[in-house]
């Protein structure tokens, strides 16, 4: 923006950001900090499947959190007033142990809570979330316990860990939303004076990556009668997450990038050591920078693209001030997630022709989990027989192909396609049939795997 003849200062969170002595005002760019964590000693064990908490590691992460926050916003006083209730919203996506690397690192939880407690005048610091996705995936209380986040939050000095799913929801009309216009949102999230968004740096089968924007999935219930999360994951997930983000923007986003997840995330990927903290006030910019560090163009990520093109934040790296370390100096190209289950595993045939991503990616997630569970696929097929997974409209199916096989039929929509009778015939010829209702039946990524395991264990 240029205004002739004016000399001015541009401020950023109370600090003088730059002095323009020429004839233009430079609008302040959103700031995103990228700070290195001194390599935690416990990483090697953690990445090999055994989480260990070492006090110095927590302190190393806390030091990086402090530097990242201060570089990005100056001080917590710019967002937290005396007496405020602060909610830290981590990514507690699943009821899973820390070694899954599918949830925020407990050391980062402890570091962030402790930093906020010691460096703000908050009345209370809360940590709250609701594990995502289907009703089979878990409740908040055991999820907080199993992930060791609860223990970490209290070690850091949290006043309370909030199990969102034990609280009321509030109907919210989302102003400006394109698709996801009506949400039911957990009350503690709306009641907090300040919200700190604490996602993890991970890839995601349906969302390509999951960072700050996708982390809002936890503010809506996973088994509410109106199926909020199920519907959000049907298709247009990125637009829906951008819409949901409008409920309330975070005051600060801190990405746990100590150990990320690449490959078949968000739950079946592999850990990748990054030793970084990425932070900023504009979640969209933070996500754009974090995605770039992971080797993605922000425009490849549906949620970031939608939020950015709608003007909810900046995604053009040229218009973001990256402070601390440059994106190029810390970038690692994360292995990309593959969401297509067709042809992945011999003997596990997927028939999906008029089928949307809501079923596709969750079947892929389930089959990946089954394949990496240590199962001997050859023995499984010899003993249990072949598997066929069907979803959506399948005009080209030959019902005879399913004869004497274990058939799993996913979702609700297959019944409204003209091919429904062929699916019914296929089911009648099958050795066993399991139905997974819902749209999207997101829980199948866990349930289909569990049912295949049961089949494998059956005498
Ligand atoms: S049931 Fe049909 S519409 Fe729903 S997610 Fe599956 S394929 Fe898509």
Automatic annotation (TrEMBL):
Q: What is the lineage of its organism?
A: Bacteria, Bacillati, Bacillota, Clostridia, Eubacteriales
Source organism: Acetobacterium woodii (strain ATCC 29683 / DSM 1030 / JCM 2381 / KCTC 1655 / WB1)
Q: Which domain of life is it from?
A: Bacteria
Q: What InterPro entries does the entry give?
A: DUF362
- The entry's protein name is DUF362 domain-containing protein
Indicate the segments forming the DUF362 domain, all copies: 86-291
Database matches in Pfam families: DUF362
């Amino acid at each position: 923006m240029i205004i002739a003849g004016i000399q001015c200062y541009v401020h950023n969170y109370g600090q003088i950001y730059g002095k323009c002595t020429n004839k233009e005002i430079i609008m302040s760019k959103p700031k995103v900090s990228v700070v290195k964590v001194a390599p935690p000693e416990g990483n090697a064990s953690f990445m090999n499947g055994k989480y260990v908490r070492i006090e110095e590691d927590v302190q190393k992460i806390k030091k990086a959190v402090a530097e990242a926050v201060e570089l990005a916003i100056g001080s917590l006083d710019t967002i937290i007033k005396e007496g405020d209730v602060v909610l830290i919203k981590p990514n507690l996506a699943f009821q899973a142990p820390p070694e899954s690397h599918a949830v925020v690192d407990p050391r980062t939880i402890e570091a962030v809570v402790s930093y906020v407690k010691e460096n703000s005048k908050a009345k209370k610091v809360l940590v709250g979330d609701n594990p995502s996705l289907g009703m089979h995936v878990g409740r908040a209380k055991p999820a907080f316990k199993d992930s060791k986040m609860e223990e970490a939050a209290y070690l850091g000095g949290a006043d309370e860990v909030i199990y969102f799913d034990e609280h009321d929801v509030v109907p919210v009309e989302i102003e400006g939303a394109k698709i996801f216009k009506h949400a039911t949102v957990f009350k503690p999230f709306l009641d907090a004076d300040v919200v700190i968004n604490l996602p993890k740096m991970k890839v995601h089968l349906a969302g390509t990556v999951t960072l700050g924007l996708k982390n809002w999935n936890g503010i809506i219930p996973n088994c509410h009668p109106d199926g909020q999360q199920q519907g959000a994951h049907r298709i247009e997930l990125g637009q829906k997450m951008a819409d949901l983000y409008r409920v309330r923007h975070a005051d600060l986003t801190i990405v746990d990038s100590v150990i990320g997840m690449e490959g078949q995330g968000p739950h079946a990927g592999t850990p990748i050591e990054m030793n970084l903290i990425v932070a900023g006030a504009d979640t969209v910019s933070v996500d754009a920078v974090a995605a770039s560090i992971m080797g993605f163009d922000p425009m490849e990520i549906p949620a970031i693209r939608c939020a950015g093109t709608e003007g909810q934040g900046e995604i053009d790296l040229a218009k973001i001030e990256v402070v601390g370390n440059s994106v190029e100096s810390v970038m690692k190209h994360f292995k990309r997630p593959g969401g297509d289950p067709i042809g992945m595993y011999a003997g596990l045939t997927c028939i999906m022709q008029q089928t949307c991503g809501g079923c596709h990616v969750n079947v892929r997630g389930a089959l990946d989990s089954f394949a990496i569970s240590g199962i001997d696929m050859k023995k499984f097929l010899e003993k249990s027989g072949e598997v066929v997974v069907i979803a959506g409209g399948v005009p080209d199916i030959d019902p005879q192909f399913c004869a004497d096989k274990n058939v799993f039929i996913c979702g609700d929509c297959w019944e409204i396609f003209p091919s429904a009778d062929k699916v019914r015939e296929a089911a009648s010829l099958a050795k066993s049939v399991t139905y997974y209702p819902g749209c999207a039946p997101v829980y199948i990524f866990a349930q289909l795997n569990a049912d295949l395991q049961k089949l494998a264990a059956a005498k």
